[in-house]
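Build the 3D complex.
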Amino acid sequence: MLRSQSHNHRHTGHKTVGSMRNQALLVFSVGGRRLGARTEDIAGVQLWQHATPVPSDTPFVNAMIRFDQECMPVYDLAAKLNQTLDSDSPLCLMIKHEDGPMAICIDAHIPSLHMVDPSTIQSRDSRDADIAGVCSAGDEQVTVINCARLGKGAVSTLGRSRS
Amino acid sequence: MALRGYKAAATARDTQVRCLVVACGPCVLAVPADWVRSILTQGEVGYGETVSSGGVIYAVTDLTAHLRLPSLTPSTETRIILYGNEKRVCAFAVDRVLELVEPERHDLRPLPTQFRNAERHRLAGFFLYRDTMALIVNPGWLLEVGSQPPDAYHVSSSLDEHWPRVEDTGLPITASLKAEAHVSAAKPLK
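Done.
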């Protein structure tokens, strides 16, 4: 079905014929590594709050964070990317995951908005479903994260256990 | 020390679920309290592998190991909880007993779908507690692992095991609660 194919392309980063409209990308850092996420997958950015550990066997999903009455699971993107957050006051990137809202701890560096041509997002590692590809945003190369499906394809591709 | 107001069975019409909230390493856990039979100090229990109380022998299980949490550091606040229903019993240690609470049923939330491995067997859900959240231990799972000899328990991270399902434990946490419509903090018992 054409509609489904179009939906899949949105998350895999493959070039889509006719998709020449610019894509808004939120660029942020995790442990200094520059990353990007499609703005339609972003729910907001807040100051990071204390996360409650959850004894879990799901890779990189080991905590929940609470904002007033709302709680959401935390995806440990820093651990996934083998990075160390380099900030004492990190930010919380809230994403619109397919399974519900999710939080990612990111560097304190304020995220910036960039417009990119979606056709320039180059798929680099098709084995890792968390990574849509890489592209140029401004004068830097960023790795584009598949926020909506984060962690859903991680188990078979990581090759290492969670921390 | 026994739980005051202990009742062997809760009726399905109760609007609240009684939970014993305990600290266990970095986590706040909530144990459905209807199966709590006694809370003892380490001194009352000793350091054996079993505890005898009221003519019943409880095997002491390492809850923190089953939950993959750091081992407890024994202190004067360490408590041993005797737990059981008519079929199975066990005993386990916790760092500290915090309080007995009665969250409303609609305050109980299922574990978010992103948690998709064996933790879904171990944890029935959670509710807001003070400035954090209390993770509800699946009482069926707890009694299942707690009543087995330590070397008979195979630690698995798979969801494909035949552990008691949360839906079978009588806790009112079902898919219908995923809407998370009304949420308010748990009220401590007066």
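Chain B has one domain: 16-186.
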